[in-house]
Structure formats: C-alpha cells, structure tokens
C-alpha cells in the first residue's frame, strides 16, 4: 500500500515549487525503506536502481553499508538517492550500483528540481562522501547544479526502445534474417523462473568470447536475482534439445520502464540466431505486459551500440556526476597500476 505521508502522488511537489524554503536532507532508516519504495514507484522515472531492496542486495553481494538519503520539503519527500558506502579508515566512498546509481527528484518545475538537487549535493559534500560516479537515468539531463557545485560531469550513451509503438518492422533486415534462422532451427524464447546458474553460464560465455572478465561472480549474481523477486523477468532461449542458448534479464520498479541488465549467448546459440530471438521475445513480452520503454542499459562500446540500435531504439545520452578529491584520484591511479603489475607478473 502507498503511504501518502512521504509524498502526495507522482508529483511530490507542485509545479510552482511553493518557494521550497524548508528543504532538509536526512537518512532514511530501514524502518522507512518500504515507504521510500512506495514513493519511488509513483515517480515517472523511478527505477529499481534507487530501490531500497536493490541497495540492500548490492551491499550483501559486494560489501559496504547502505545510506539512503531523502530530501524533504517540510514533511513531504521530494527526492533522494540510495548509496552503497564503504569506509576506508576515515574516508567514506560511494560504490557504484549495477549500471545506474541515480538521483531521483519528484516531478515539478525546473527551478524546484534544481533546488532539490542542490540541497542533496550540499548534504553529500557536508558528509565528505567521495563519489567516483553517480550514473543517472536518462530523465536526469538537467544537472547544472552539479556543475555549479564543482562536480565533474561525464556522458555516455544507451538505447531506449519505445514499446508502445514498437513492431517487428523496426528491426533491421540483418537481424530479421537471424530471426528467421532461429525459427528454422526451431529455437524458442520463453519467460522462465529466474535461474542465476543458467544466466551466469551464458554471460560468462559471452564475456569470454569478447576477451573480458565477467563483472560479478556466480554467488553475487544469485543474491541480486533473488532480491528482484517480482521486479525481475528472465527470458531464456532453448534449442529443440532443451539446452539454453541465450538468456536475458530485465528489471523494473513500477510499470513504466524496464531495464535490460544482463544477457548472454553461447557460441552455438550465436550460430542459430538465439541472441536475436531472445531480444525480440523480450520486447514482445514487455509490450504485452504494458511497459512503455525498455532501456538497454548502455550503448557506448563499438559494435554493441549498433546491435542494440538494430532493434528499433533511439540512442540516448545518459549523464554521470562525480566528486573526488585530488588525493583520492592519485591513490586510485596507484592502485590501478599495482593491479596491472600483478596481472603482468602472473602471466610470467
């Protein structure tokens, strides 16, 4: 049930901003997490990456402790951010969530939203948080206050597909040919109960093929998938023999936008068009469930961006902000160099 004490519907504050002279920031303790998640579900671009359940799962999977900051206009919640913190001596470092780590601000005038953002950034600075990166969802394009408060601004890209109008006609001819190959091979795509082992094995096959390491371990993936519950959906493509050939996992908080966070395809699956069958099957399933958008969660790498665009999406800019003291940047550079030397020594 939605608890209106933390907000007044999707807007959170009115368009005029009512002056917003009493903005405060405080930490939301665990007893208030459900109320935060209820408010988040009402926001037009509220994402699972800001949810308390996702923050808790990330802390269990990767370490650190949760810090959920809420911005209040009087007693009314109007924004906030969910952060995973690790303490290195007296230093408090914000660790990234998977793919996004967005600031959420309720609907309102541009001026009101900037006031909320400024108040939150000032509070994070007072807490002396080291923030290597906060990757915002695609709705957060007005980050002027971050620049004015001397935060760094970085850009990357993702592909967003409008599901309301999407049809197979939006898929490129090359991918449609692979889709027909999948049909001839009699592979099938279905929504199945989440299975971390199936997904991890296929993810690892894809990453190995690309010469990269899997970004998380099997047990970490299992923790995150189990935490998603009803917020997650796994699509699996199987051959006629029942062997998994491709799989993808999407996540949502609310019913407006879904996020494609993990996928993988076996070498045999690639030859049978299973990756395309998985993408198309997922789009059809999300469309049938009433979602409006699918964010493909990243399109900055050569080749990968073209593949995602071939399904009819739009290349969209996403912004990230960071706040790192010079001493922290220097220490991180030394750490990266040491890791590189260790890898070189292991090879020899």
TrEMBL record:
Residues in BioF2-like acetyltransferase domain copies: 178-299
Pfam families the record matches: Acetyltransf_6
Protein's recorded name: GNAT family N-acetyltransferase
InterPro entries, per database record: Acyl_CoA_acyltransferase (IPR016181), BioF2-like_GNAT_dom (IPR038740), PG_Glycine_Bridge_Synth (IPR050644)
Sorted UniProt keywords: Transferase
Record-annotated membrane-spanning stretches: none
Protein's UniProt keywords contain Transferase: yes
Entry-linked SUPFAM superfamilies: Acyl-CoA N-acyltransferases (Nat)
GO molecular function: transferase activity
Provenance organism: Candidatus Cryosericum septentrionale
Top-rank taxon: Bacteria
